[in-house]
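User: Is it possible to get a 3D structure for a protein together with its bound compound? The compound here is flavin mononucleotide. I've pasted both below.
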Amino acid sequence: MKICVLVGSPKGEDSVTLQTVLYWEKMFPGHSWEFLQVGRQIKKLEKDFEEAAGKLEAADLLLFCYPVYTFIVPSQLHRFIELMKIQISSGNLHIAGKKAAQITTSKHFYDVTALAFIKENCQDMGLSYLGALSADMEDLLHKKGQKEARQFFRYIMWRAGKGICDPVIKRPAERPFYYVPMPEKKVKWEPVASEKGKKRPENEVVIVTDLSDNPLDPSASRVLSEMIADFRSRYQGPSRVVDLAQYPFKGGCLGCFRCASDGVCIYKDGFDRFLREEIQTAAAIVYAFQIRDHSMGARFKMYDDRQFCNGHRTVTMGMPVGYLVCGNLDEEPNLRMIMEARADVGGNFLAGIAADGKGVCDLAAELTYALRTGISLPKRFYGVGGLKIFRDLIFQMRGLMKEDHRFYKEHKFYDFPQNQPGKIAFMYLAGAMMTNPVMRKKMGGKMTEGMLLPYRKVLEEAQAKRK
Ligand SMILES: Cc1cc2nc3c(=O)[nH]c(=O)nc-3n(C[C@H](O)[C@H](O)[C@H](O)COP(=O)(O)O)c2cc1C
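Assistant: Yes, that's possible. Here is the predicted structure of the complex:
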């Protein structure tokens, strides 16, 4: 089979993920392999797509090979997918009907959303999707990981031979783009008392957006601007717009880890400072974007990836966030999950998602409420699970990720269960009592009663406060 590997890592030939593909190349002779360095050479590919188109068209199987970057794929690969779609729509790339599969490596922090993103885009381009291997960075170093890698390759070859692929999710081909603001009332603003020494007003909202033109949807940026204007007219506090289309990014995150110990990015485009001084100083953030390729678009992805200079630190913790979305969000469960999970992991109150004009007024009201009350709710599975992965990772890598380690210690993120010797000893005692038939009989329903004792105390205290 002719396999074209789309190497999405900006590390190019030094990519960890690529090593599994090279392993397959050695283990399964008889296939031809072509490598497209889309992560490393994106700027060149933006200028000239012809050679890449030739390689893609000559292949039977397109193999997406990339690291998970902030819930999805590196911005460079995201951009390449944008380019592929533009080429397809202008009749310069013909790949419909070819087979597609993906291999990614990560620490499994939201690998699921990255996998769904690639699958959705493959299916948009008419590719027959065969499956995904999501491996830990180090899997290939162990016999088990090598076996799984071999099994996966045989599996997709078997699927390809049998003509079995994943069923396509049906979506409407087009949707009309128009914006009709909801006839809602303005929100009454009750000012938040400002704290001394803070540079910006306590209720300032920064609206981060990408207003660049979308060649596949020319009206989208106008619609998005209208949504932003509508939001600003309804939100009674101060607001600012940061248009990422105007920001002079030097490029996407290179995954070089230079920022790991001191938080300073290798690029000299001032983004790390901009982030800290222009975004993180606001009271709340609203992300306004048009749905592009089942995501927020490659430019927004560049902004997300470049935040790696903050490492794994939840630096906007406590800031409410909201979304203004231009596009049919009902069709995008994976994107919705990314938005919800981001807020949950980051410790941000999600004040609302307004899509296609619906809910703009509610978002303004909820942000106002969130800023006035400082509401903060417990994390759910998305946040709890995600932070456990980070906790274990940073603890292991604390020698390198010095800033992260400091932050995790300071914010008590190292909540390892073994740090609770009292609780563990108590459970041993309870376990010993429950395995003894005499004790178990004696205890009867006292176990549940015992568990409720501390809650009773809380209720009694609440009762006492009422008096
Ligand atoms: C900017 C950036 C973002 C990352 N985001 C994630 C992530 O969301 N989830 C995860 O599990 N790992 C994440 N990682 C770790 C990479 O996925 C992991 O190191 C991968 O194996 C690197 O593969 P490569 O050498 O092929 O680039 C991130 C790394 C970088 C540099």
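The mean pLDDT is 91. Residues 9, 11, 15-17, 67-71, 105-111, 137, 253, 255, 305, 308 surround flavin mononucleotide (CB under 6 Å).
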